[in-house]
Amino acid sequence: MGHQQMLGLSIAYGIGRFFGRKEDSAETKKISNKIKIFEDNIFTQTILIFILFLVLILIAQFSSLPSNDPNTVNTIRFVNSDGAINPVYSQW
């Protein structure tokens, strides 16, 4: 994750030189107290990764599976077709 972040930062730095003024930096900006927590890089990354994993879990849960056999589908899925948590995963 760190290498991709550094690549993104270097690309943003390279592109950002052509926009805005040097005096107008992110350090001098004032942000609302409601979103001040997002100044912390670790917190922001945690929220973004959580959202990413949540979306991926929802896609995996509700995507169509190649098998039409309900037993296979209920074994693979976290939640069975009747809405109960799969017993295979309840032992975590």
Automatic annotation (TrEMBL):
Q: Which membrane topology term applies here? A: Multi-pass membrane protein
Lineage: superkingdom: Bacteria
Where does the UniProt entry say this protein principally localizes?
membrane
| Keywords, comma-separated and alphabetical | Cell membrane, Membrane, Phosphotransferase system, Sugar transport, Transmembrane, Transmembrane helix, Transport
Q: Which InterPro entries does the record cross-reference, listed alphabetically?
A: PTS_sugar-sp_permease (IPR004703)
Give the location in the cell. Answer: Cell membrane
Q: Which GO terms describe its cellular component?
A: plasma membrane
**This chain belongs to which protein, by name?**
Ascorbate-specific PTS system EIIC component
